[in-house]
Amino acid sequence: MIYDWGHSRRFNAYSNYFKKAFGSRIQKVSIDAGFTCPNRDGNISVGGCKYCNNNSFKPSYATTANTIKEQIQKGIEFHNNRYKSPSKFLAYFQAYSNTYKPLNELKIIYSAATEFSEIAGFVIGTRPDCIDDEKLKYFKELSEKYYLIIEYGIESCNNSILKNINRGHTFEQASEAIIKTAEYGIKTGAHLIMGLPGESRDELLQSVNKISKLPLNNIKFHQLQIIRDTEFARNYKENPDNFNLFSSSEYIDFIINYIELLNPKFVIERFSGESPPQLKIAPDWNGIRSRDFLEILEKEMEKRNTWQGKLFIA
Ligand code: SF4
Q1: What is the pLDDT of residues 8-29, one digit of tens each?
Q2: What is the pLDDT of residues 261-298, one digit of tens each?
Q3: How far is CA 191 from CA 10, 17, 134, in A?
Q4: Max alpha carbon distance in the chain (Å)?
Q5: Nearest CA to ligand 1 atom 5
Q6: Domain map (residue ranges) of the chain
Q7: Domain range 14-304, its CATH number among 3.90.79.10, 3.10.129.10, 3.20.20.70, 3.40.50.2300
Q8: Is the CB of 48 inside a 6 Å radius of any atom of ligand 1?
Q9: 113 close to ligand 1 (CB < 6 Angstrom)
C-alpha cells in the first residue's frame, strides 16, 4: 500500500509537496551571501571537504559581485523568464555555511530577503557545527512568518568515511544539530552523498534506518561526482581505482533499494546531482540529466511495483 502523500507518485515528491503547501509553483533563488566555512578558514581545517567546489552548483547570478538584493532580483527575473508562469520564491542561502557569522550579521543578511514580497521562505544550508541556541531562536522567529528550513550536510553515517573526506564533524554532531533544530520547531533538511570512497552499497543500505529515525522534513541525495579543483579530482587522477562511482543504471537500482527502506514521511527533494559539464570529471552518465534520471527512476519503480518506505520499519 502506497503511503498517502496526496498524489499518485511513488515517492514523497518535493514539487507535489510545495504545490500543496503554497498552491503554486515554487522556485529557489540561489544566493551567495559571502559566507565561508570552518572547514576552509582554518577553524577546523583549511582544505575543505575533499569533494567540495562551490562553483559546481551556483548559478551565474549568485555571486558576491552582486549584493544579496541584486542576486534575489536577478534570480527572480531568471526564473520568471524561464517559466513564464507565476511563481513564489524561496531564498536559498546555498553557498558555504550560511549560519557561520555572528547573529547580528546574520540578521542583516536574512532581512535583505524579507524586503521582497515574492519571497515566501528561506532555505538555509549549513554545517552542524555552525548553529547555536541564539541563532536557532532567531530562525524560529523568522519561521513564524515564512516557510523556513535549515539543511544540514550529513553526507555519511559512518565516522571513518567522514574523517576520510575531511568533513570535520561526526554523524553524531549532525544528528544532534538536526534534533535540536527540530526541537525549536524549525523544519530540517539533510544532504547525503552516495558512493563515497570506502563506503559500500550494503553499508549504505544498512544505514538507512539511522537516517529514517532523524526528525527530518526533507532529504536530498547526490551520487558522488568528481569535480575539478578538488582534492578528490587530484586523488582520482592519481588512482581512479580507489573510487567506485555509480553508473546511472547502478545508481537507479541502488537508490530504489535505498528509498524502499526510507521513512515515507521525508519529502525527497533530489535523487541525483548534476554538475556543469565543464567542471565534472566523472562519472560519465552519457548526458542523462537530473530530469531524465527522475523519469527513468519513476518508470523503474512502476515496473518493480515499489515505492518510498515500502520496506520501512518504524
Ligand atoms: S562542502 Fe560545505 S562544509 Fe565542506 S568545505 Fe565545502 S562549504 Fe565547507
Answers
A1: 899 999 989 988 888 888 899 9
A2: 999 999 999 999 989 889 999 999 988 888 899 999 99
A3: 21, 18, 24
A4: 53
A5: 48
A6: 14-304
A7: 3.20.20.70
A8: yes
A9: no
